[in-house]
Amino acid sequence: MHQASGYATIILAAGNSSRLGEPKQLLKYQGKTLIRHVTKAAIEAKSATVIVVTGSNSTLIEEELASLSYHAVQNVNWESGMASSIVAGVQELMTMHPNIAGVILAVSDQPFVTSDLFNVLIDKALETKFGIVASEYDNTFGTPVLFSNRYFPALLTLSGAEGAKKLVKKFTDDATSIPFPLGSVDIDTQADYQKLLRNS
């Protein structure tokens, strides 16, 4: 059996941003769209591969990322909730890289995610042997979050609106975290976006 190696990043970008009224993935911040920013950060980090899961607005998002070396996965069930995107991404990853050591799940609306943050998640996983490494902000664990491959079966059981946080709570004994105070900034509404632009 081959030794498991490397960590992939799956970026969840399938939602239709109903509360925002336009695709949040394509909002511009500091000259780049949010989806391009997070995808570039993942590619520049120690990611073995980067998968972007699209659903609503998939054509626009893929056009925006056309020049980047990533792998697109279309989630035809995106309307059923975030879990379907996690499942679609993990299934694709297991097919592409059956020996991958683990995966980082990221979202497209955290503008302060960096390649350094992804690398710190990976380093913490390598140094501590914890199976889950989450980002910590607002006294909670959230995305980006790293799962070792032993959690792939559990990730594949998520459904509906369930996200990775359910598993972090369920397996707290095997979870650790890194500080990411700016992780609390995400874009769900026009007010969130305007606040981000004002503060930049």
UniProtKB/TrEMBL annotation:
Domain of life the protein comes from: Bacteria
MobA-like NTP transferase domain sequence ranges: 10-170
Classification via Gene3D superfamilies: Spore Coat Polysaccharide Biosynthesis Protein SpsA, Chain A
Signal peptide start and end residues: none
GO molecular function, one term: nucleotidyltransferase activity
PANTHER family: MOLYBDENUM COFACTOR CYTIDYLYLTRANSFERASE (PTHR43777:SF1)
Name of the protein in question: Nucleotidyltransferase family protein
